[in-house]
Amino acid sequence: MSDARPTSSNGRVFWGAAITVLVLDVVTKLLVQGTLHELVPKRIFGEYARFTLVYNRGAAFSMSLGAQSRWIFGSFAAIALFILWKLYRQSSPGARARALALGLAWGGAAGNLIDRIREPRGVVDFIDIGVGTVRFWTFNVADSAVTIGAVLLAWVLWREDRATGASKKATTDAARVEERTGT
Fold it and tell me: Would you state the pLDDT for residue 1?
């Protein structure tokens, strides 16, 4: 990772992903709020996938810090946006997978931050997956993008770490060969 400015292709990937996620998230939340009643499931794919409008005042998995959760988690989101943007800015030219991962996470964090500002009841969640009474936590487009972005970023960093390790090993091995042969 270098401090060089990312290439314009990195910028297109980062901002393209971020803006796409942000627009999809805001539009889907507004549609859901305009068409569904809170806590009334609408089947999409049998019992497995439903849209159920809920408001989450907390963070992931409905974690709460009390009455000030909205502002505390909103502050965390604003800090995360800055950190994700800085990581994007520090990305090497051509690091498109990293730019995509950071852009997905940035767009998702921005979408949920907008909800924390505009909606006093909490972040709008509506994607309801499960079987019968066994349900996963209700989530939204922003949550999906943050999760996918985080998994992709972990994979990118793992690959970078492996490449760095292989490069260091090759350099060390070459130095040992030179030492033995006296070249």
Answer: 46
